[in-house]
Design a protein that fits this description.
Elements: E1 3-8, H1 9-15, H2 20-27, H3 29-35, E2 44-48, E3 53-60, E4 67-76, E5 87-95, E6 101-106, H4 110-127, E7 134-138, H5 142-151, E8 159-163, H6 167-181, E9 184-187, H7 191-195, E10 199-202, E11 221-224, H8 237-242, E12 245-248, H9 251-256, H10 259-265, E13 273-275, H11 276-281, E14 294-297, H12 302-319, E15 323-326
Parallel strand pairs: 1-6, 7-8, 7-10, 8-9, 10-11, 11-14, 12-13, 12-14
Antiparallel strand pairs: 1-15, 2-3, 3-4, 4-5, 5-6
Amino acid sequence: MGAIRVLVERDLRDAVGMGPEEMETIEAVYPLITAGEGSMPPIMRIDVPESNGEIDIKSAYLPGYPGIAVKVSAGFFDNPGKGLPSLGGLMMVFDAATGVPRSALFDNGYLTDLRTGLAGAVAARHLSRAESQTVGILGAGMQARMQLEAVKLVRPITKAIVWARREEQADQFAMEMSDMLEIDVYVARTREEAAAADLLITTTPSTEPLVTADMMHPGLHITAVGSDAETKQEIDVKAVGAADLFVCDSVAQSSRLGELRASLGEGFPRERAVELGAVITGAATGRIDDDQITICDLTGTGAQDTAIASLAVERCTVSDAGILIET
């Protein structure tokens, strides 16, 4: 059968990071999703209510890619109180031509964090105002960090305003990220204060809406990355309805797991939802003026996992990183 390349988090961090090529890799999958190319089955989720946790399985075959990634991702949201990260997991990559296992990626959730952050940068590049300089962030965990770092790839961000339920976590975030990115990072005492920015990113596992229609202002772009289950919701249905443009990575997933789910139940027309892939290719109209309010709901796709894992394995193979195990 050959050999499997076993890669751990440090190998993968050395191979891929928050760079322009990685962002282009993630951007390239959205037109494929919208065109219905390849094969991307619905997300399988296992709920663990006693531990405030879930395990998700995502995968996709994309034409032209050498591998097919199957990701098992764990989200246990009480973990920070136990001194553990809330997200983790691993990926397996199979040869797209033979189905033979080629690599096992013990990334501890790093690739998921990375590709989600890069997806936020793609959304901001296509939907936020080009001159956006301030970003508000709801949440202060790992994904909040990734999103802030990523958005700086595409917008001239000079100031960030972070809000979190745990004020001490927001304080820590502000201190660390201001040093890391060399920008001003402030702690918001209210969500409204964070939403006053040019661009708002929501990164929480909230089950109740955090962003309401009266918090929105002309020119605002919102990237919502937290809702990826039927129980989650960060954007109020009236806020979704009040936006000039609602974009999502996958209409099917957003309708089932994302911000579209609750809105469709309240009469939001499904045809108003536009996929990011269509905006990227020009098949659908994106932002057309600086006063529009835009929302992009990112539920996360198996296509992103196959893309980032394929890039990581390719680079690790060239550098001969990891350990080869004969099977």
